[in-house]
Amino acid sequence: MQKISGFVAIIGTPNAGKSTLLNSILGQNISIVTSKPQTTRNKIFGIFTRDNMQIVFVDTPGILDPKYRLQDFMKKEIDSSFDESDIIVLVVDTYKYNPEELKTTYEKYKAEFSTHKMFCVLNKIDLLKKEEVLEIIGSISSQFKFDEIIPVSAIKKFNIDDLINTIAKYLPNNEFYFEADTVTSQPEKFFVAEIVRQNVLKQYKDEIPFSVYIDVEEFKEREVGKDFIRASIIVERDSQKAIIIGSGGTKIKALGESSRREIESFLGRKTYVELFVKVRKDWKNDEDFLKKNFNKQGAPVI
Ligand SMILES: Nc1nc2c(ncn2[C@@H]2O[C@H](COP(=O)(O)OP(=O)(O)OP(=O)(O)O)[C@@H](O)[C@H]2O)c(=O)[nH]1
Ligand SMILES: [Mg+2]
Q1: Which of 85, 153, 208, 295 could bond 9 through an S-S bridge, CB–CB 3.0 to 4.6 Å?
Q2: Cα of 172 to ligand 2 centre, how many Å?
């Protein structure tokens, strides 16, 4: 049978539900999700294969106007996802639907519209009444030129199949890019770092989660006994180091335990996790640090 395959970039404002959508399509949690905006920092490949079709989804960080160097790197992740993509899926949060914001995004990526198929995916429709969804669809189709507008709920898995089937209509004849049973191209080490970061995002408040970089310094798989993982939590200031550790080390202990549980469930193996905290002054604006570390844990490669 003739194979069809292609790349689909998932873009949208922070918190729109891009990573939730990817996980929902794959039926596996490969991209971390939290209620905080700017959860995703890197491009993440999620590979969906069914019968003669393979779709390589590229999850991206939320669209932003960079305010520090880390955000420049994050923005490059979005921009570079276009080059490899056949289709761009713009995810819109219908619960917080804001026509002005959509217009700004639409204008920002206008150039991409002429070179790519452009889908508007209206997410979080589980939080709206049917009439409200229809009203938003009407307003978007009268103002913007999308190739497709598809309402979904990533969390409730409404219309996900419809989205897949619509993408399939646009895919070129192509051999598969990955083996049919591959779900992602990132190495395990990347997910280990992301799981620890997700736990930081959930367990700490204010600016702490955004000031943290996770460096998996050692990851030893063992035939016998537990795998060994040593990771540093890199923060920007001494005061943040104290917050991460917590009084008597209680906070970092809780972080280590919840991270280990999730890492074990992800890897399907028993694991020993050791966490340290290090300070690298203002690393989010440190060009040398970012160049060396931003994609260190495993950038997507084909
Ligand atoms: N009710 C509802 N909530 C959703 C849905 N999809 C995502 N969410 C929630 O929206 C929040 C953000 O989800 P993410 O998937 O992390 O959003 P994102 O667009 O990847 O965010 P960034 O990576 O920060 O750009 C989380 O609390 C999700 O549980 C949905 O279909 N319905
Ligand atoms: Mg995300």
Answers
A1: 85
A2: 27
Cβ(169)–Cβ(130) below 8 Å: no
Q: State if residue 43 touches ligand 1 by the CB under 6 angstroms criterion.
A: no
Task: Quote the pLDDT of residue 222.
Answer: 87
151 lines ligand 1 (CB under 6 A): no
Contacts of 282 (CB under 8 A, 6+ apart): 236
- Tell me, what's the pLDDT at 301? 52
| CATH number (domain holding residue 56) | 3.40.50.300
Q: What's the confidence (pLDDT) of residue 300?
A: 55
Assess if residue 182 is contained within a domain.
no
Name the pTM for this structure: 0.95
Q: How far is the CA of 101 from the centre of ligand 1 (A)?
A: 17
**Residues around the ion ligand 2 (C-beta < 5 A):** 18-19, 39-40
Q: Are 233 and 265 contained in the same domain?
A: yes
Exposure string over 183-212, b if 16+ CB within 10 A, otherwise e = ebbbebbbbbbbbbbbbbbebbeeebbbbb
Kindly give the parts of the chain with pLDDT less than 70. 298-302
Is 209 a domain residue? Answer: yes
Tell me, what CATH number does 273's domain have? 3.30.300.20
Q: Whose CA is nearest to atom 6 of ligand 1?
A: 17
Supply 301's token pair.
């490669």
Tens of pLDDT, residues 221-251: 988 889 999 999 999 999 999 999 999 999 9
Judge if the beta carbon of residue 62 lies within 6 A of ligand 1. yes
